Amino acid sequence: MKPVSRLLLLAAALVLAALSPSRAADSGKRVVTVGGDVTEIVFALGEGGRIVGRDTTSSFPPEAGRVPDVGYMRQLGAEGVLSLKPDIVIASAGAGPAEVLKQIESAGVRVVRVPDPHSVEGLFQKVTTVADALDAKAAGAALTAKLAQDLTKAKAEIADLPGHPRVLFIITAGGGPPMAAGTGTAADSLIRLAGGENVFAAHTGYKPISLEAAAAASPEAIGLMDQTLQQMGGVDAVASNAALRLTPAAKEKRIFGREGSYLLSFGPRLPQALSDFAHAIREKAAEKGAL
Q: How many domains does the chain have?
């Protein structure tokens, strides 16, 4: 069976499951979301008006910025969350600390953990989990069907693009050294879905690397989060870096940055992000006006 056919069948199965009778969730009216992907899904379901708090990583859609910020998703405080009097907290699997979430539950607030596998199937699971938590199953089924359709189109578009570029994806965290994305990361999944080859696939997770090691990998394209690109001085600075300037990516200025959650959260914007990334790893920065 073709991958596209399997994708549509999986989406159809999830839609049917979402529409089947089950015990209604105690969804409540006041919602705190933790995780940019979770917040985006709630808005995409048409339930954004119920959000009374969100974490710092939840910056899209713009309406999310008008909601009180409860802090970074991995460093939550029970007092700040509870002060918003939520009926339910919907949190990405990476949210924490665990003891804080337990404190919130102990205060009588329902906490729903949303899995975050970096895959198309994982996105469908997220939508189903969030929709169930909000007792919005019909909206969840509709969103899943729309995403399946958009992803099928994106996959077909990518299949028609030339080659399988060797890609290096770099991030920085807290001003630390550059780290390359290995297997088991959102960036690795994104590269593979976009038809590229991860030059650091032999490594697992995000690993600090020297720029010399990055150059030895001979990437044909270098992708970064916007913040990382700015920290490294922009496209021209990366392309002229002594360790990178002889790589195919630097010579062709196939170096680009994108907002982190857009590329890596595997939320409702995944079809757009896949198409964008697939083109970016094959085009010169100058061709896109990115200089």
A: 2
Asked if residue 156 is part of any domain, the answer here is no
For residue 119, what is the DSSP state?
S
Instruction: Sort strands 221-225 and 166-171 into parallel, antiparallel or unpaired.
Output: parallel
Asked whether residue 189 is domain-assigned, the answer is yes
Tokens at 254, concatenated: 């196939």
Instruction: Specify whether the CB–CB gap between 277 and 165 falls below 8 A.
Output: no
- pTM exceeds 0.70, yes or no: yes
Q: Do 30 and 96 lie in a common domain?
A: yes
- Structural tokens at position 63: 């309406």
Strands 31-34 and 88-92: parallel
The Cβ-side half-sphere exposure at 239, using a 13 Å CA radius, reads: 20
pLDDT tens-digit profile of 177-213?
A: 788 999 999 999 999 999 999 999 999 999 988 878 8
Q: Is 255 helix (H, G, I), strand (E, B) or coil?
A: strand
What's the pLDDT tens digit per position in 106-152? 999 999 999 999 999 999 999 999 999 999 999 999 999 999 999 99
Question: Which tokens go with 210?
Answer: 């020297």
Rounded Cα gap, residues 194 and 215, in angstroms: 22
Its domain, for residue 271, covers 161-288
State how far the alpha carbon of 197 is from the alpha carbons of 141, 167, 284, in Å.
33, 6, 18
CA distances to 52, 55, 56, 63, 268 from 66, in Å? 10, 12, 12, 6, 20
Report which secondary-structure segment, H or E, holds 189. helix 186-193
Please check whether residue 58 is in contact with residue 18, taking contact to mean a CB–CB distance below 8 angstroms: no
Does 145 share its domain with 200?
Answer: no
